[in-house]
Amino acid sequence: MRIRYLITFVFATWAAACVAAAQPVPRFEEGTARPALLVDGEPFVMLGAQPNNSSNYRAMLDEVWPAVERIGANTLLMPVAWEQVEPSEGRFDFSFVDTLLDQARARDMRLVLLWYGTWKNTGPSYVPAWVKRDTQRFARMHMADGSTHSVFSPHGEATMQADARAFAALMRHLAQVDPQHTVVMVQVENESGSWGLDRDHTPEAEALFTGPIPAQLAEGLGIARQSWSEAFGPRAAQFFNSWYVARYIDTVAAAGQAEVDLPMYVNAALGNAFTDEGGDVGPSGGPNWNALPIWRIAAPHISAFAPDIYSRDPKAVETYLDRYAASGPLMVPEIGNAAEYARFIWPAMGRGAVMFSPFGIDGTGYSNYPLGAKELDEDVLEAFAAPYRLFAQMPRDWARIARDKPLWGTAKGEDGADQTRTMGRWALTAQYGRWAFGEDDWTWIARDPHPLVDVPTGGLVVAQLSENVFLVGGQNVKLRIALAQPGDGQQGEIIEAQEGRFVDGEWQMRRRLNGDQIDYGFNFGTEPVWLRIEMGVLE
Predict the structure, then answer these.
(1) Which CATH number is 417's domain given?
(2) Are 297 and 213 in contact (CB under 8 A)?
(3) Closest by Cα among 108, 365, 118 to 246
(4) Mind listing the pLDDT tens digit for each residue in 219-266?
(5) How many angstroms from the chain centroid is the CA of residue 138?
(6) What is the C-alpha separation between 475 and 491, in angstroms, rounded?
(7) Residue 29 pLDDT greater than 70, yes or no
(8) pLDDT over threshold 70, residue 12
(9) Based on the domain organization, do 52 and 170 belong to the same domain?
(10) Which 3-state string (H, E, C) describes 396-426?
């Protein structure tokens, strides 16, 4: 009898492993209206959460999961540090990775691993001590006066090869222990580049800088092969550093992809969203928005370039989103965890984002204010949980819609002014700080100011399903729809408005809205909902 049970157990384990191994590798889908992330062969949107930097240890996970689950995330972005997995050269320890995988699977949670290697916020803090101590073997950048800068040089061959070997070892281990692809993506390094130094000034770097730009770069940009200064003028030093940082990171990424061909991305520390004339676009050499053409040529193994957003200015946020959406799959792996940042999920999803993730989601009590919240309290957690609940109702369906359909997303601005977008024949207007009932020009009845009129909350996302049909999700916002250019005697008319959701591609109505609920616009309250709205034209 024991033998029979043993055989049954072994067979079941083997069968489960075969099923897991049969899952397709996550990848970005091409040839669609906008990029989609395929997980288990279907479009997937990552409702993410990233803990504080030092929560990447087994003993800390009990303080991570409650906050992650409270906001309803489906994906945890977790650092894995080079110093953590290779404490001494050639000796690897993946015990934390194994624990993380086990606990994520128990919670039906997907993972994105963040490789903290040569660069972390440009600095070397996550590099193993044996690398830090050997300044002869592992080269640092030099200032123009010959003094040493703390950041490792992108021209350091020994550092690059050591980083690549460690990353490849991590990915090789992942290939062995994660055939079901709990890990859907990997970030390679973190906010690379250098603050306070535009480029390396070692003799090797000086020789490269005074020579011609690489032939691959000249061909990719369609420009003459000339010196860096001749090719790029005041941007020469930054673009020089960008090329070599990107080539370095691409080498690391390629070593890992040779073990598991998962999508890989890099994230950017951000500077000025609107202009690069003053030079403040982020650390020199990083995937800053003005250097993305360089990065795309230099790093073919990188699938996406992602902004880390800590600006509270809605115009700057939407500009960042536009700049990075134009470069490929849009992802926001870090955004501040103050409640006012939560509303930026709407413009992100309205640009087809496949990832949105507040930073600092754990119960450790650490606060990175003023970048984030002073305290990660219940109000802050709920600010992110509310929109997450909406997208969690239909994450696959939304991902398919976002891949294929015209989109618009917006959030309340600094002044709370109306925002309008034309989609086909229709003008859609988002209004903030309005009561659900009544019109602005009513003077015959007194009313109090809306309690959210001065609160930085609210936004919506719109998908145009067909010429006259819209899928709208929103929170603390009023939507009005009218003909953009009505002909003589024409006006828009609501055919019907249904609250509900998509389930496996089919719309399921919860209720039909009429009367007060839609006579004064389509109103979205504190709890976000999906509306399917069909418009018509009254002649």
Answers:
(1) 2.60.220.20
(2) no
(3) 118
(4) 999 999 999 999 999 999 999 999 999 999 999 999 999 999 999 999
(5) 32
(6) 27
(7) yes
(8) no
(9) yes
(10) HHHHHHHHHCCEEEEECCCCCCCEEEEECCE
